[in-house]
Amino acid sequence: MAWILLVLAGLLEVGWAIGLKYTEGFTRPLPSVLTVASMVLSMGLLGLATKTLPIGTAYGVWVGIGALGAAVLGMLLFKEPATPARLAFLGMMLVAIIGLKATSGH
């Protein structure tokens, strides 16, 4: 169950990271409210996951999911560069996330 909570927390982190772009500096009310709600839920779920999972593993996976997801969505939604090198490093990030899960002992 902790892993499910952690993945959901990571996906919500992607949501609030992307949401920051849509808030336009927190000047747009609805995107701002949704972004802050995603932040709160993401942190809350991360906190619940760390009751069982080691903090280093949980935080690393949470940040990794957020960074990977934000980078991929940045490429898809905002036309950010998708160079071969960038894609290769994102692939390594995915391997690191999977590695942390595989070696966590949970």
TrEMBL record:
<comment type="similarity">
    <text>Belongs to the drug/metabolite transporter (DMT) superfamily. Small multidrug resistance (SMR) (TC 2.A.7.1) family.</text>
</comment>
<protein>
    <recommendedName>
        <fullName>QacE family quaternary ammonium compound efflux SMR transporter</fullName>
    </recommendedName>
</protein>
<feature type="transmembrane region" description="Helical">
    <location>
        <begin position="33"/>
        <end position="50"/>
    </location>
</feature>
<dbReference type="GO" id="GO:0005886">
    <property type="term" value="C:plasma membrane"/>
</dbReference>
<feature type="transmembrane region" description="Helical">
    <location>
        <begin position="84"/>
        <end position="103"/>
    </location>
</feature>
<dbReference type="InterPro" id="IPR037185">
    <property type="entry name" value="EmrE-like"/>
</dbReference>
<keyword id="KW-0813">Transport</keyword>
<dbReference type="InterPro" id="IPR045324">
    <property type="entry name" value="Small_multidrug_res"/>
</dbReference>
<keyword id="KW-0812">Transmembrane</keyword>
<keyword id="KW-0472">Membrane</keyword>
<keyword id="KW-1003">Cell membrane</keyword>
<keyword id="KW-1133">Transmembrane helix</keyword>
<dbReference type="InterPro" id="IPR000390">
    <property type="entry name" value="Small_drug/metabolite_transptr"/>
</dbReference>
<dbReference type="GO" id="GO:0022857">
    <property type="term" value="F:transmembrane transporter activity"/>
</dbReference>
<dbReference type="Pfam" id="PF00893">
    <property type="entry name" value="Multi_Drug_Res"/>
</dbReference>
<feature type="transmembrane region" description="Helical">
    <location>
        <begin position="57"/>
        <end position="78"/>
    </location>
</feature>
